[in-house]
Structure formats: C-alpha cells, structure tokens
Write a structure and sequence with these properties.
Glutathione S-transferase Yfyf (Class Pi), Chain A, domain 2, four-stranded mixed beta sheet, globular, maleylacetoacetate isomerase activity, Glutathione_S-Trfase_N, Glutathione S-transferase, Glutathione-S-Trfase_C_sf, Thioredoxin-like_sf
C-alpha cells in the first residue's frame, strides 16, 4: 500500500503541516508532491487529485482520493490501527477527536489574524479581542484534555495523537506572533517547537523557495523562540568527511561547514535544510557524532 500526498509551501501552509505530520509522526511512508501557492503549478497538481481543491489531498495506491485533513486522519487511523493515531483508551480517544474536530472547524479569528509563517517571529503584534477569545478557549480545552486524560507526556492525551498534529500550526502561530498564553499552554507550545518532526518541517520551510509576499506583516521581528540551531553555513570549498549524502546515499555535490567540520550533500536542498537546523535530522546527527 502506497500513498501520495499533495502539499504546498512548508513555511506558510498550516494544513500541509498537519497532513505531513499524520505520516511523519506515525511512521507511515508517503510520497509527497509540492506546488507553490499562487502559481499555475498549484491547480495543475491538484488536477491529479480531483476533486480536491485544497491541500492536503491524498491518493492511495488503489486510486482513492481523500480530501480534507480530518478525513485523511480518520482513514489512516482505520487503515493503520497499530500506529495509534488516536488514543487506545475510549475516553481519551473521544477527547482527542473532539479537540481535532474543533480545531478543524474553529479558531477563525486566530487563523485570519495570524497566518502561519515559520520564517519569522514578531515582537509587537497586538491581538484583537476576538483573537484573545480564541486563545482563552485554547487554554481551556488544552487544560481540560490534560486533566481528563491525566497526561504525563508533553501531549494533550498522553501519547502524541491526531489532536496534537492538528494543533501544531496553532503552536507555531502562538510562538511566531508572541501571543500571551498561560504557563501550561506555553509548555505545550514549546513541546511542539522542540519536537523533531516539527523542527524538520520548519527547517525545510526556511529554504523552500522565496518568501511569499501575501504573508508579510509589518511588525517588528525577533529571533524564532524555538531551539537555537547548531552553528552551520553553506560553503563552496573544502574536503568533506563523507563521500555520500546522509539522506540519499548519493555522491556528495555541495558542502556545508557544521561545527567547524566539512560535510557533503547530494544537492542544495539536502544541504540547506540541514544548515537550517542540523540537530533536527537524526541521519545527519549520526554522521556528526562520528569522529572526524
């Protein structure tokens, strides 16, 4: 059984992030197709996923097309029960489903005022009364979920679930716009910012094409509040320690200096996503852990 997932700009598309996490966090292989927003390539890509008009859109090896992230989540949970997309406990599962459904349909003030932008963090955004209402609702339902499920993990219902995947872009908005939430909610936001899958998506988003002007906001900026990346930069000369790319196994073509050492990669995207956040990539970190 194979899957093909249609997605768009990593830095900006909150629903693409959700769709990707449904595979990445639950160890389900998937082929991805990307087309940039506001280009002719986007409707051309979606034509292969008809009748989808938005992303994510999923096509199965049987030729079935599934649109809407919540439908994709439920289909994956049905096809792969061993991957535990939903909590096994019935009470916890009901809570997780309620959370995911509310996120899918709600929080419009927050979503409209604070479009996701993983490339920037703002320092002087002032939320409206409507956005504040959304933030207080998030605090309430997140706290309710953790209390009801007695979660002893960073996540809402115990182990990471579909509900957490759905709230990952909300965490990015709260962090990116410097929104004030309770200490408990802040801990949940930070769990997403430190999560390896989230960091990998953001690292790719940082180097995934040019900035999209639609998402630019005229606020003062600050450093992204997530983990500080290891010092790294692209370089044009040097002798790499490795002869094959840590990701593809192909011969190295481009170089980066990371923690004072030279490493090779098979293409610019492999290199640049690593330079953006080396510690997000387990395959590269295994290479870095080797003695030079």
């Amino acid at each position: 059984m194979t899957y093909t997932l249609a997605l768009t700009d990593r830095a900006y598309s909150s629903w693409s992030l959700r769709g990707w996490l449904l595979f990445e966090k639950f160890n389900i292989p998937v082929q991805t197709r990307f087309a940039r927003l506001y280009t002719d390539d986007f409707p051309k890509m979606l034509a292969d996923f008809a009748p989808a008009r938005l992303v994510p859109a999923l096509k199965t090896s049987e030729g079935h097309v599934i649109t809407e992230s919540l439908a994709i989540a439920e289909e994956l949970a049905t096809r792969h029960p061993e991957n535990n997309h939903w909590p096994a406990n019935p009470h916890h599962r009901a809570i997780a489903r309620s959370l995911a459904a509310e996120m899918h349909a709600g929080f419009m003030a927050l979503r409209e005022a604070c479009p996701m932008n993983l490339r920037v963090a703002y320092d002087d955004f002032s939320p409206s009364a409507e956005v504040e209402k959304d933030l207080r609702r998030l605090e309430a339902i997140w706290a309710w979920a953790r209390t009801e499920t007695k979660s002893e993990t960073p996540w809402l219902c115990g182990t990471y679930s579909i509900a957490d995947a759905f709230f990952a872009p909300v965490a990015a908005r709260i962090a990116g716009y410097g929104l004030d939430v309770s200490s408990e909610a802040t801990e949940y936001v930070n769990a997403h910012l430190n999560d390896g899958a989230f960091r990998r998506w953001r690292a790719m988003g940082l180097v995934d094409g040019d900035d999209q002007p639609f998402y630019k906001r005229d606020f003062a900026t600050k450093t992204w509040p997530g983990p500080t990346p290891i010092k790294a930069q692209a370089v044009s000369a040097g002798t790499p320690e490795n002869s094959s790319c840590a990701y593809s196994g192909k011969p190295t073509e481009v170089l980066a200096e990371i923690e004072g050492r030279i490493f090779g990669f098979c293409n610019r995207f492999c290199r640049d996503k690593t330079v953006a956040d080396p510690a997000a990539w387990p395959k590269f970190m295994k290479l870095l852990a080797r003695e030079s």
